[in-house]
Amino acid sequence: MTDAVAHAHGAAGGDGPAYTGWYAAGRMARGVAWAAVGFALGVALLAVVRNITGHDGWSKEASICAGYLLALPGWLFGMGMWDGWGREWFGHKVKHAPSDWGRYFSFCHDHKVIGIQYLATFVFLFLFAGLFAMVIRWQLLSPNGAILTNAQYNSVMSMHGTVMIAVAVAGVAGSFGNYILPLQLGADDMAFPRLNAMSFWLIPPVAVLLLAALPMGGWDTGWTAYPPLSTTNGTGQLMFNLAIITFGLSSILSGLNFICTFIFMRAEGMTWSRIPVFSWSLFAMAWIALLFTQLFAVSLIMVTLDRVAGTSWFNATHGGQPLLYQHVFWFYSHPAVYIFVLPAFGIILEILSHLSRKPLFAYKWVVGAFFGILGLSGIVWAHHMFTSTMDARLLKPFLITTELISIPTGLIFLAALGTIWQGKLWLRVPMLFALGEVFNFLIGGVTGIFLADLPTDIHLQDTYFVVAHFHYTIVGGEIFALFAGIYFWYPKITGRMYNERLGQWHFWLMFLGFNFTFIPMFWPGIQGMNRRIAEYTPDLQNINIVVSVMAFILGASFLPFVWNMLASLFRGERAQANPWRARTLEWQTTSPPPVENFPVPPLVTGGPYDYGVPGAAVHAAPAYSAAAGD
Amino acid sequence: MKRDLGIVSVLWLVLIGVGLVLAGFDVLPETHSDKGADVRHAWETLVLMAVPVMAFVIAVLTYSFLAYRRRGEPAEDGPPHTGRNWVPKVWFVLTGALSAVVIVYPGLVGIDAVMKKNDTTDIVVKLQATKWRWIVQYPDQNVTTLKELVLPVDKHVRFEIQASDVLHSVWVPAFLLKVDAVPGKTTYLEFKTTKTGSFEDNEAMRLQCAELCGRDHATMQLPVRVVAATEFDQWVADLGGEPGLKPSVAKSKPGGHSGH
């Protein structure tokens, strides 16, 4: 059993040489080399075709697309897909990823390694895009713009928005989804470990493309890339399109993997009503990723074709429809906000239950609410288009469906409040972040009503009211949950405890910094400050200075976080298997868990949250005690 | 239990009081259009409905945070409330009812109000949006200007909006109304001016592009003036146009904020 698992994980087993980290570095270099070869080949092939058909061989954007089409598989196969997967197709033995630190830089199949790869990558990207937010707030200290030209501002704003959206999509689901889901289900890995590794290694090309856009002048359309602006601007836009299409592929593969894992990889006795709520939230989230992400890719493929092949999907002078893009785009991009926030709900409900020592209140209603949100998410997109001049007959149906979402969301609040009511609140850092999330999402949700209601949206659409609102839902609702999860699972993942005092500093600085930044931000929006502007009218300068100063405090709050995470990795107190005395399965194995997760396959015998329930069976037999003697 | 509920109820009422005081502050810009007044009513209604809901959640959250905190690791479990009782059902019905109310008013009723077409249009203004400026035409007065948008007060106005390059959006914050300009079609915004005012006194009196349109999107704006009818005629005459309004009765023209 253990051998088979180790083999499937690609960890150094008995049958191959023990590769080291430097081997990983070599593979990475090979990936880059093969990407270059692929790019050259793609460009050359296109040049041949273009010459035969009587065109110039080189056409900037078309050549970049053709080169990228082959550079991407070149990168993937070069950096490890060939060694760890492809060799098998031709009857060769696969080469395993290294088992030392190099596995974090390798095409490694272990879901825990992939989870850490996602977590490290996206925390880094979060801090990186956060610096862009600091630049934005610096610019807005002055009504005429303090440091940037208008063009630079648009690039900075677009980079901030795009990278943060990527963080919101994969920051929680990619990291904790991968790390925790198999553990909570009692599985030894995801259903498709190699596909999982591929999902992650599609991410570095996304980052490279976005960075490559900067020397090309960036892109100035925000993350929404509305045409005709996005079909007529600089080549940076093409980089954005290719990046997002690649990122979408990664998202779809992950979604598929989560769904199959959830259905087929559950331990014996893990019946539907015993599955922890975070796993449920990932299951609902994964359906959205699988069903809707392709629409974003489709919309950007159409934009790319308009740029490269001279089609006119969105070019009105040749019969195209600019509004078509918005329908296709929001058909994904509204459900996407539930990709952000469903796993976040899962994390905070998980933490509220364990650290209040109480059952999760109305568990089955919560699961129902997840699916209510999933179902409604697909039929609300046009509320982003109330002022777009779409067919007026669509306004009322979309207002109705959008307002209905407050019903399942309300059930999440009921669960949160019912769970902490009369509990024994253990106010450690994860608990503080979870409680803070409930407060933030309350403001995000209530202000959302004003945007879902057309009569107020017609004034507020595209203003800083919207900016403040979606930062409340995405940062307040999801990023707070991301940090709750980081502190909650830190001892499990690293085997060390974080520093409580620094964590508390982080929470209070971030919570207060966040709220004092974004509460005042509603005001300029209502008063007449539209979003995505490098300059504004002087009457709004004072409030913008307040917002900027508070935003700098919010930015500073991540310093104790970074220090805490890095220092605790080496100097933190050794963590026990179950420092929170939680019932769910990820806590019933060692910290960190062994490669195969559970030395003995766990047997699930009770509910995950039956705290204080008289005569309740344990959720699962603690498998580690027999094997590890802990 | 009874004590907890009692304190939370008092806290809830106090927070509702605080919320109502805060709701008393007028945060919207001074309003210069009839439909802006409808937007105002919708805003005020939603604020009043939001206050008790937010107050409830904050009351429970704050009380729980303060009253149930434990020093150190809790030795025992809390009471096993699983929620397998009437509470979620009542909550479901209440939130459903609340959401139904919001859908009907200000939702559906408000849509009819803010999308309403003019019965009679007193003045037509053609707005041409092009990177990064507005071209303002008064076809009946034979005036074209790039400098400002001037409207007579207490008149029914129709904007006929076109975009020549990319998406733009017509937004006058002081009218509390907005509609996109879309290449390839004409879009409309119909309303009645209700109050004089100008950009010099109130920065919300400006025509602002509200849809990201590239480099100088931020400064794609034009001062707006709403003036007495005589003053409007004078302004038209100064620009060499033909003073006087030519009202037209709506046949079946698209209005509100639809497009062809």
How many distinct folded domains of chain A? Answer: 2
The CATH superfamily of the largest domain in chain A turns out to be Cytochrome c oxidase-like, subunit I domain
How far is the N terminus from the C terminus of chain A?
22 Å
Q: What pattern of helices and strands is seen along the backbone of chain A? A: HHHHHHHHHHHHHHHEHHHHHHH
Q: What structural category characterises the helix and strand content of chain B?
A: alpha+beta
Largest interface: A-B, 96 and 89 residues
Percentage of residues in strands of chain A: under 5%
Q: What is the number of helices of chain B?
A: 4
Secondary-structure element order of chain B, N to C: HHEHEEEEEEEEEEEEHE
CATH architecture of the largest domain in chain B: Sandwich
**Mean pLDDT over the residues of chain B:** 94
- CATH topology name of the largest domain in chain A, in short, is Cytochrome C Oxidase, Chain A
Number of strands of chain A: 1
Number of helices of chain A: 22
Can you tell me the CATH architecture of the largest domain in chain A?
A: Up-down Bundle
Mean pLDDT of chain A: 93
Low-confidence stretches of chain B: none
Overall body shape of chain A:
globular
According to CATH, what is the topology of the largest domain in chain B?
Answer: Immunoglobulin-like
Largest sheet of chain A: none
Say how many strands of chain B there are: 14
Description of the structure:
Chain A has helices at residues 2-9, 21-52, 60-89, 111-139, 150-170, 173-185, 193-201, 203-213, 229-232, 236-264, 277-308, 322-356, 363-377, 395-404, 406-420, 429-452, 454-460, 464-494, 500-527, 541-556, 558-571, 624-628, and one strand at 425-426. With 630 residues, chain A is mainly alpha-helical. Chain B has 2 domains: 2-66 and 85-114; 120-249, Immunoglobulin-like, CATH 2.60.40. Chain B is 37% helix and 25% strand. Chain B has helices at residues 2-23, 34-67, 86-114, 229-238; strands spanning 69-70, 120-121, 123-130, 133-138, 143-145, 149-152, 156-163, 168-172, 177-181, 187-192, 197-198, 206-209, 221-227, 248-249. Chains A and B meet through helix 5, helix 12, helix 13, helix 14 and helix 15 of A and helix 2, strand 1, helix 3, strand 9 and strand 12 of B.
